[in-house]
Amino acid sequence: MNHFYGKSFLKETDFSAAELNYLIDFAIHLKSLKKQHITHQYLAGKNIALLFEKASTRTRSAFTVAANDLGAHPEFLGKNDIQFGNKESVADTAKVLGSMFDGIEFRGFKQKTVSDLAEYGSVPVWNGLTDDWHPTQMIADFMTLKEKFGSLKGLTLTYVGDGRNNVANSLLVTGAILGVNVHIGAPSDLQPTASILEIAKKKAAQSGAKLLITDDPEAAVEGADALYTDVWVSMGEDVDYDKRIKQLLPYQINNDLLNKTGKKETIVLHCLPAFHDTKTTIGAKLLGAHKLDALEITDDVFQSEQSVVFQEAANRMHAIKSIMAVTLGNLFIPESLFE
Ligand code: CP
Ligand code: NVA
Question: So where does carbamoyl phosphate get bound (predicted)?
Answer without folding.
Answer: 56-59, 83, 107, 134-137, 271-272, 316
